[in-house]
């Protein structure tokens, strides 16, 4: 074996030798792995020895009272906040703590914020077109033309989010729920491996909630989905695995039935909600 | 609605951003109306005798040519304001720079026929006792160089200004104020004799352009037609940009800039490119304006003029392009009439018109047309979807 080959072989040892665009390695199961993560803001421990593993293709719900660190956790995964200590891995190859926000986004982690922001003056179709993974420089954008493949990708996503009949309408006329779905669709256009969804059903009607539940469940399997949600009814309707956060660390983990019967959980969260 | 009827899918020409506009109904109508107007004016000017009631005089032809230059300037402003959300209150500066580049060429064309008869130096330089041309006047005796500078000078200024402004993410009101300051600073600079642009009096006393006598009726008609063609080309370029994916990125960044960044687009580069294109179009408009009015002086840099341009666009309807053309022509026609009848009342009339349109027609005159069309498509959609 030549020296060059030996050096090349070392990319198993030194992760900086791995090209940033290399595929996510999920052979060992987890697509997202957080270990002993700590974050404090001005002495307040927002995240306290957090350990969390998300498996490839899983749909995971994360619940917890206000201030449990749910949003901070999302911020750490997407690179917006740097933890004081701990490890965050995407697959078993990408150390997310060494990457910035755009790099993490291009690795395939999509995040949907609580408030839907779609481009209201553009049509639903155009919204998806802009979100599509493509050459985003100025001149290629000027001369860009949809290929048949890209068009069918948009149609596919339109079907997934159930907005086919509205594809030519302005996004501004959509209802709140439809905007949320469109934004999930915009994330899907970038073919993410992991979707982080922050409170998707806040402000939705019952029917919209049901539809969202269907949408998120249908995504799992193809993508891994992490949903942060307050609405217990909604979580019950979609969740296979639930993680309860409390004061920055995991309080309980398991199926909805398991966690809702856990006395610690009842005390800090479910109990408090039933009283209220 | 079926998926196959999504926008811009059917035309075989849609692969080129510049040819796409020709397959759009609004562009075809606009170009047809413009061509018809140019043809009618030409025929009425050439075919009818001077005494005929329908005869278009040479004065009117030049006046209309001026309106067309203003219309091109308005289109340039609408491109950045209507689609990119950048309210430029300094586009007059790019217009004037294009005008000065043309003016310098026309000055060099005078040659030794000036009052002082100097073969090289324009009159004002002789008057100031200068003995040689300043370095930046060299090359302007060549038409190709001057015509290149008509676009390059405003383009470079816009590139420098835009690079600094957009890189530091200056937007909204702040950007508007800086553009205003830019044109004001240039006005003060050009007023100074030492700048070498004729100071207060500017450049005037032009004689010929490419060998054609500027005072002859034929040249005036030619300039009018050239302005019309420039407007058509500028319109098609702008329409091509706003109809492309880049145009949709512009609209998206106008409404939610941070979200566009999050999608991976370099918003500041998009803004810079479109801003430079707009400035170059404004420069072309200025260069055609100068030989028709016969003078360029620093008052074209006046902040007031740039604000007036914005009023034209607002009146005509922002974000439509053809609205800007309608607004520019209507307001300037009104200005010609009003300043003739009641010179003191004009500014009140303009202000009043602006208030009325903003309150009653927030989308301008063009909004009247799109409102009707939208109502039609809404009823169609209701019928199509159960």
Automatic annotation (TrEMBL), chain A:
Residues covered by the ABC transporter domain: 32-272
List the GO terms this entry assigns under cellular component, sorted alphabetically: plasma membrane
Work out whether the entry's keyword set contains rRNA processing.
no
Q: Which SUPFAM superfamilies match?
A: P-loop containing nucleoside triphosphate hydrolases
Top-rank taxon, per record:
Bacteria
Example GO molecular function:
ATP hydrolysis activity
Q: Could you tell me the keywords of this UniProt record?
A: ATP-binding, Nucleotide-binding, Transport
Q: Do you know which PANTHER family this protein is assigned to?
A: CONSERVED COMPONENT OF ABC TRANSPORTER FOR NATURAL AMINO ACIDS-RELATED, HIGH-AFFINITY BRANCHED-CHAIN AMINO ACID TRANSPORT ATP-BINDING PROTEIN
Protein name, entry field: Urea transport system ATP-binding protein
Q: What is the lineage of its organism?
A: Bacteria, Pseudomonadati, Pseudomonadota, Gammaproteobacteria, Oceanospirillales
From TrEMBL, chain B:
Keywords for the protein's UniProt record, in alphabetical order: Cell membrane, Membrane, Transmembrane, Transmembrane helix
Instruction: Please give the chief subcellular localization of this protein.
Output: membrane
Is Calcium tagged as a keyword? no
GO function term, MF aspect, one: branched-chain amino acid transmembrane transporter activity
Where does the protein end up?
Cell inner membrane
Reply yes or no: does the keyword Transcription regulation apply: no
- InterPro entries cross-referenced by the UniProt entry: ABC_transp_permease (IPR001851), ABC_transptr_urea_perm_UrtC (IPR017778), LivM-like (IPR043428)
Query: What topology does it adopt in the membrane?
Result: Multi-pass membrane protein
| Protein name in the entry | Amino acid/amide ABC transporter membrane protein 2, HAAT family
**Organism in which the protein naturally occurs:** Onishia taeanensis
